[in-house]
Design goal:
59% of the residues lie in helices and 5% in strands. The protein is mostly helical. A hairpin with a 4-residue loop joins strand 5 and strand 6. The longest helix has 19 residues, at 293-311. Helix 7 (114-125) runs antiparallel to helix 8, helix 11 packs antiparallel against helix 12 (189-206) and helix 12 runs antiparallel to helix 13 (211-219). A six-stranded antiparallel β-sheet has the order 1-3-4-5-6-2, sandwiched between helices.
Amino acid sequence: MAPPAQSQRSPSPSQPSGKSEVSDLKLQLRQLAGSRAPGVDDSKRELFKKVISYMTVGIDVSSLFGEMVMCSATSDIVLKKMCYLYVGNYAKVNPDLALLTINFLQRDCNDEDPMIRGLALRSLCSLRVANFVEYLVGPLGSGLKDSNSYVRMVAVIGVLKLYHISASTCVDADFPSILKHLMLNDSDTQVVANCLSALQEIWSAEASTSEEASREREALISKPVIYYLLNRIREFSEWAQCLVLELVTKYVPSDSSEIFDIMNLLEDRLQHANGAVVLATIKVFLHLTLSMTDVHQQVYERIKAPLLTLVSSGSPEQSYAVLSHLHLLVMRAPYIFSSDYKHFYCQYNEPSYVKRLKLEMLTAVANESNTYEIVTELCEYAANVDIPIARESIRAVGKIALQQYDVNAIVDRLLQFLEMEKDYVTAEALVLVKDLLRKYPQWSHDCIAVVGNISSKNVQEPKAKAALIWMLGEYSQDMQDAPYILESLVENWDEEHSAEVRLHLLTAVMKCFFKRPPETQNALGTALAAGIADFHQDVHDRALFYYRILQYNVSVAERVVNPPKQAVSVFADTQSSEIKDRIFDEFNSLSVVYQKPSYMFTDKEHRGPFEFSDELGNLSIGGEAADNVVSAQRVEENDKDLLLTTSEKEETRGSSNNGSAYTAPYDGSSTSVFALQTHIESAISNPTAADHSPQASLAIDDLLGLGLPAAPAPPSPQLKLNTTAALDPSTFQHKWRQLPVALSQEYSVSPQGVAALTAPQALLRHMQSHSIHCIASGGQSPNFKFFFFAQKAEEASNYLVECIISTSSAKAQIKIKADDQSTSQAFSTLFQSALSKFGIP
């Protein structure tokens, strides 16, 4: 039986079937180069299209350079354009080949057709080869004097290209003065706009080294030039109008009458159909009237209608750009826009990024007269299918409540949110109720009655759980089950992965202990023991601090942890006024859209994510591991020293009292916060002066359920790793699937480490210097994923690590698996120590 016939696939028209295809093209182009037969231009077009298509998909057709140049001897403008495109592409990487194009480009610069003259001049200036500079001066000089405006327009931009290739040649040829003459005298507005753009760039670059250039740059914003451009502004294109208006922004009028003249001249630009022109005009109005408070407010009233019109027209992307600028103005003067709050209601078909901005503006414009309507609208969004928008709407309700507008109705709405059977609604409402109680403590009775019915098991989000725990500690005297809820949370300490929740839990248990000691005693002892043993540095330090201050004096501990609190009047703004003013100065730019000054996103450090491809294999071994590893024994001994009871330290240091301030009786009515802080620091740093006996220390240990102090245990032997460890990927994958997770932890990454992650390879080399090797890595900013392995020095016992680092939160999520589970904690200490040193010189 014959085999089935194979399907014949025709080659793609955009790719050659083999190397001979390019050779065939070369032969055909050579045959057509000198031909004058009828229809030869049509044949050339087909061949040129093939060459351009091959070039576009990345096939090297530079070998056709000579033939393409020879075929350019034609009056067909389409062929000319394709030839110029080809020449411009290969001239940059093949300067020797580019030399062949000079003659025919210079010849075309003198062609009778102005379109060909302009295209040839543009291609000649686009070669950007330093050795060809002398060939540019003549054609550019002729182009600037050409009778056709298109050629002059191209020549002006060509001067700017020449400046970037050779600044001295451009200045020596006196091109800047020619451009200035054209700008002030040319009849074509596009030529004028190009001259303005080129001169601004040239003179700004030259101003640092030339006083004359600096004077010329200042002359651009002189009254005659500004008025000349403003009087012709209606003739300019939209792009050119924006350019002129940006220049006018830098002009400083001599008096108020001149300000009004300029504003009257630009009044009709506010009705322009193009959003960029409207925003540029608004920027002029705002900057001109900054020193005139009353007029500045009237400007806000005048620009409000054009902006609102632009927001409601055009694409969502255009609306967002305009809305970002409107958002900036609303934040600066919310009272002016308070009557137009309905324009900021969200439409069902709007993108989420537009809705988010509108919610922020609704929050800003809320006042006594419109709060009810705005809050009612926001509550409707809480049931939105778009969960992020629902969350933002609940936060907006809380922010309005914190602005002291109709608090009674808003509190009722927030409490209704707590009763909704949606996890994310409950979570956001809990956070807001916590802030509300900090500002309005008088609402505690109503809020706590509802909060007390919420089960902590149903709250999973860290911020919400932390808010619930804060309320349990702060109002434990009003919540009957508060000690028992806190005790159940402490018992599940190891299952809580958020350090923020564990920190709040420590403080809440302490507060509850001072209010209801018998019911909270066991929970406090368990919490302090768990906190002291916690891997997170902040949790560990806070637990030690609480433990030591309780040892010193329980009364002092209560004054520190649970002092009388005053209501919070103002919550801190997330953005400083200086940054807001800087963004306002950069109105009509990306700074407003990004809501950050330009220096924050134009520096090298902020130039966006980079691509980081997966890698598999071992890196070269470094010889610095032994010197860089922090001694686990030393860390353990330091912790034990911190945990020594006061009586034990008295034995080693001796009793002394230097008459320090903390031995004086405490007077709560006159002691300042600074004095209290000094009081505590002195007690901790010099515990021998404390007025309590060894028996008191033993009592507090027993009270907290930590047991009586015992002799220090001998330090555990330091874990040593094999510097020449090796593990093939298949073995790693097999072990990773088989072994259980020994430890799952979260580390903080230092700011230096986050900055150093712009080059992820640096982390791999750093960890290898600590005998921890990377077997695979991947991801891109802000999330990176690494797989590490290490081996014991004295035996073939492996440690496998999955490390996920988020540069946005500066956190590292770590999973450790080990052949020997008993040494996992020791290895975790080594790993954390190595990671903490990353990026630190």
